[in-house]
Amino acid sequence: MQLEKYSMGIGDRFAHQGRAQLQAIARAKSEGFDVVPVWNKSHREHLATQSVPGSVRKEADQAVQALSWDGSYYVDADHIGLQTVDLFMDSSDFFSIDVADAIGQRASEDDVKAFVDQNERYIGTLEIPNIAEAFETSREQVEGIANQFLRAVRQAGQIYRHIEGAKGRDGFVPEVSMDETDTPQTPVELFFILAAIANEGIPIQTIAPKFTGRFNKGVNYVGDVDQFGKEFEEDIAVIAYAVQEFGLPENLKLSVHSGSDKFSIYEPIHRAIQKFDAGLHLKTAGTTWLEELIGLALAGGDGLSLAKEIYRVSLDRFEELCGPYGAVIDIDSDCLPDVIDSWSGEAFAAALRHDPSCAQYNPHFRQLLHVAYKVAAEMGDRYLDALDRFETVIAENVMENIYERHLKRIFMVG
Fold first, then answer.
1. Torsions phi, psi of 143, nearest 5?
2. Taking a C-beta distance cutoff of 8 angstroms, is the pair 376, 383 a contact?
3. 394, CA 20 to 30 Å: which among 79, 132, 147, 346?
4. Domain co-membership, 162 together with 144
């Protein structure tokens, strides 16, 4: 199973927007831009919404059938580890192997020595094609990289072999994810991580490193855009060289997690993948849930009342809801509105929709609701019935968000 050049992770908290999501992908394809959909939902999200991994497969299959989609599509076991992978085995064919928690766990002295000896030829001056300046590396630096990442890669290998035993080598797309950690990986670190992955025998097709800057949920990138662009291009060059040096799959590409709404870096990403003719996997997730809320608000009546209720409950449960996401949100509680009873549907939507040019847009309001899907989940059928009742207006917003703000900006510009 070989992942295509361009792919996009389309998360859907409540498994109701698969058709609208695929309509956006199909529209891009009709205009000559082939991006394959990858439906994704993490174990944490399944727990919060009391759903099961098989529901994602069902949603994807139904959307594909409804639209007579004849292209490839995948279902991602998002951010799985050894404790959760079996839950996704039957329904998924894309596995994001998350080993971020193992980063920094020191490897044994023998393993470190063996790794450094094996890669001794890269110690000194490391020249990578398409990177202007060579990197100077020392044995001590490579030892430090091994101590930082080798245990994590070994864990990825263990998980990979477990999946391979169940699905076969060609039965799934493997990704290694290292993005949910505090410190970005440098291009040199990425190079030696890929060396370790190849040595572990993992035929990864995408890798999700931690990039420089902040990738907060549902809002724009925070950081130096020029520096990000430089590092992103260097990472692409590193991958191309690692494929050549270590025999990794030729379609190996970068995966950008928490990639939704990072509008300021879409241009340098697009420029880089065009410049190097490189692939890309862009993972989005919670923005579809936010478009559901926008659609409910714009529907007015009961839809607007429900959206307002979800916000009021979320505000009361601020600490509980934000705690698990502390590393990927920045919310100033003083900037959250206390009273929204008089808001129209248009006012609610304007505050929530990610349009920085709109004076009513409130990124703090947006981030809180981004992590508040648990509140809607607890409403059970009451919320799901509202999604069915107001499907038309919700679907319009879901499709517009994916097509106009994401697909067009990152894959189709220029």
1. -60, -40
2. yes
3. 79
4. yes
Please give the share of the chain, as a percent, with pLDDT higher than 70.
100
Q: How many domains does the chain have?
A: 2
246 occurs within a structural domain: yes
Residues 247 and 348 in one domain: no
Strands 6-11 and 280-284: parallel
Convert the pLDDT of each residue in 127-164 to its tens digit: 999 999 999 999 999 999 999 999 999 999 999 999 99
How far is CA 389 from its chain centroid?
29
Domain carrying residue 123? 6-286+403-412
Same domain membership, residue 233 and residue 196: yes
Interval 155-168: pLDDT, tens: 999 999 999 999 99
**Read out DSSP for 302-344?**
HHHHHHHHHHHHHHHTHHHHHGGGGGG----GGGS-S--TT--
Q: How far apart are CA 283 and CA 6, in angstroms?
A: 11
Q: Give the helix/strand (H/E) hosting 282.
A: strand 280-284
Any idea what the Cα angle at residue 225 is, between residues 333 and 331, rounded to 5°?
A: 5
Query: Taking residues 240-253, what's their average pLDDT?
Result: 98
Residue 23 to residue 64: CA distance in whole angstroms? 10
300-304 contact pairs (CB < 8 A, 24+) = 300/345, 302/386, 302/389, 303/345, 303/386, 303/389, 303/390, 303/393, 304/344, 304/345, 304/348
Amino acid at 248: L
Q: Please give the Cα distance from 174 to 309 (Å, whole number).
A: 40
Residue 1 lies in a domain: no
Judged by phi (left if over 0) then psi (alpha if -120 to 50, else beta), residue 130 lies in: left
Q: What CATH number does residue 128 fall under?
A: 3.20.20.70
The pTM for the full model equals: 0.95
Question: What kind and span of H or E run contains 9?
Answer: strand 6-11
Other C-beta atoms lying within 10 Å of the C-beta of residue 133: 8
For the segment 344-354, the average pLDDT, to the nearest whole number, is 98
Report the distance separating Cα 107 and Cα 105, nearest Å: 7
Contact (CB, 8 A) for 268 and 232: yes
Under the banding of pLDDT at 50, 70 and 90, the label for residue 414 is: low
Q: What is the pLDDT of residues 11-34, one digit of tens each?
A: 999 999 999 999 999 999 999 999
Within a domain: 16: yes
Which residue matches tokens 């060396």? 195
Residue 281, strand partner residues? 7, 255
